Amino acid sequence: MKAKFVILLIFFPLIASAQKVWTIEQCIDYAKQENVIIRRAETQAEISKISHQQSKENFLPNLNANASQNFSFGRSLTEENIYESNNVFNTNIGVSAGLTLFKGLQMINEVHQTDFNFQAALMDVKKQQDDICLQIMTCYLQILYNKEAVKVAESKLELTKLQAKQTEALVDAGKKPKGELSEANALVAQDEVSLLDAKTTLETSYLTLTQLLYLENEEVKNFDVSDDVSFMMTDVLNKSVPEIYDVALEFLPSIKGEELRIKSQEYSVKMAKGAYSPQLSFGASYGNGYFYTQGGENLSFADQFAKNNNFGLNFSLNIPIFDRMSTPNAVKRNKLTLNQQSDQLETAKNNLRKEIQNAYVNAYMAQQKINLAEANLKASEEAFNYQSEKYEAGAATLYELNESKNRYTSAKLSQVQAKYNYLFRTRILSYYNGELKF
């Protein structure tokens, strides 16, 4: 006995930690970190951030260093202006720098454009996070509903088994024919199949959520969700569709992202127009060298390095005259893209309005269905109890009892479905109203 107790103490922590129960908040936080779609959007945002940083760094001057070593063999011109066979070696080094002084405001406009692109990319990340979180919420609530459906199926099976025992007792007492006992046993087998179907549906919903979370096989085996989800009424239905729509326009990532892309495209048009302007740049250079002629008189390296210095400054002005219509066509293309982006924003707003309208109707109908489902459940339960009493008294057939039981079970499922449907629909509407944050 003592050995068994020691073994239990050793393995109890492993058993206790085998099953991990996830809350909906844990599922959402985990998905934000591990979901591939979200990570891809975050990577794209980082790329946009680098592009914005580069647009600001383009204002810095460039700096380059160069060095060369030349070898010349054969006849060459000497200081006496005659050709002789000499070998000449020379080393050259230099440094150059360049700075763009004016480029038709293209560089400034590029900074604004890339900034809006970066902000739009951040909105894309938030949109992907919200979409994934809404999917997780849907799957999570589906699991809770399927759990309740399994409980209802188990309860129905227990009732059917109890009816089968009652039928057996009535058959033994001679109050019911033996055929009804066979029918009662068939109903038990039928409800066992229904219970198995409900459990299969539950397992499938578990699998859907774990796939969305990208869990490993071992984590999938030990996965479960917490049943502790607050079910509370909300006043979001007291607001009108236009009120919810106006709120959604102010914060919804899909809308804000399109607005930012319009601003970005406006600066793209300005950048294209900047190509009409002249471009002014400034450059500076420094060079030095060492020359050596084989067989001739050569100054030392230090003397040559001191004497061979050369410095240079230059300004370059480029005035565009004709570029084969490249700039006018670029301006036209960017303007057309701007129009497309504006149309895309209007499409997104229209889709949002439709989504809110549908969500509002669904939430309202779900609220109404809760009251009806509860009333139906109460009436079905009373009818089933009455039918059970009649069956025990021999005044009702097994078929009538089973039909009443099926209506009662269906009413229980409808009540559970109405509850979770209301919870889901109102949370969707609350999301559009800015009350549900992920």
List the helices and strands and how they pair.
Layout: H1 2-18, E1 20-22, H2 24-34, H3 36-57, E2 62-77, E3 83-102, H4 106-172, H5 178-213, H6 217-221, E4 223-225, H7 241-251, H8 253-274, E5 279-293, H9 301-307, E6 310-318, H10 326-392, H11 398-432
Parallel strand pairs: 1-4
Antiparallel strand pairs: 2-3, 3-5, 5-6
Helix pairs in contact: 2-4, 3-4, 4-5, 4-8, 4-11, 7-10, 8-10, 10-11
Structural notes for this entry:
This protein is α+β, with helices and mostly antiparallel strands and about 450 residues long. The protein folds into 2 domains: about 20-60 and about 105-275 and about 325-430, Up-down Bundle (Outer membrane efflux proteins (OEP)), CATH 1.20.1600.10; about 60-100 and about 280-320, Outer membrane efflux proteins (OEP) (Single Sheet), CATH 2.20.200. Helices cover about 70% and strands about 15% of the residues. It has helices spanning about 1-20, 25-35, 35-55, 105-170, 180-215, 215-220, 240-250, 255-275, 300-305, 325-390, 400-430; strands at about 20, 60-75, 85-100, 225, 280-295, 310-320. It has a 4-stranded antiparallel sheet with strand order 2-3-5-6. Strands 1-4 form a two-stranded parallel ribbon. Helix 8 (about 255-275) packs antiparallel against helix 10 and helix 10 packs antiparallel against helix 11. It is elongated.
